[in-house]
Amino acid sequence: MEVDITLRVDGEDRPVRVDTRTTLLDALRDRLGVVAPKKGCDHGQCGSCTVLLEGRRIVSCLTFAVSHDGAEVTTAAGLADGGRLHPVQQAFLDHDGFQCGFCTPGQICSAVGVLDELERGWPSHATRDLTAPVQAGRAEISERMSGNLCRCGAYTNIVDAIEQVAK
């Protein structure tokens, strides 16, 4: 069964007809031509398809598009403000936080989500003191980014980039 939905992708309303079993990732890539989120494992284990849904990071291969009719979806391509890069994008460049680049859009969206979580004071598994303000240290950032895999092993540079923006 196919239905008509509208997704607000990177600030633009995009109507699309999808089968009710179509994932958000497939709707973005195959139906709308939005190629920033990548299809890696297609099982929610690698994070290459991470996007921001209503401002929160999700792996788009594990959610149905029809569940998000009318939702705001931001990809790594939609983070820049005109010709000015988002601070996370700039930090990734500053710290060489990518190598082959396949995981980079998902890493960047996840990093933006991590920074929002830290700003809101949400604890993670690595948070030692749940009564104190959450600190954006390497262990905290690494734990929060653990769902985004990088075959090239650029993890140190990715954490450096996120730390730069967190400061």
From TrEMBL:
Superkingdom as given in the UniProt entry: Bacteria
UniProt key word RNA-binding: no
Pfam families hit by this protein: Fer2, Fer2_2
Record keyword Cell division present: no
Keywords: Iron, Metal-binding, Oxidoreductase
Residues annotated as domain 2Fe-2S ferredoxin-type: 3-79
PANTHER family in UniProt: OXIDOREDUCTASE WITH IRON-SULFUR SUBUNIT, OXIDOREDUCTASE, IRON-SULPHUR BINDING SUBUNIT-RELATED-RELATED
Protein name: 2Fe-2S iron-sulfur cluster-binding protein
CDD domains: fer2
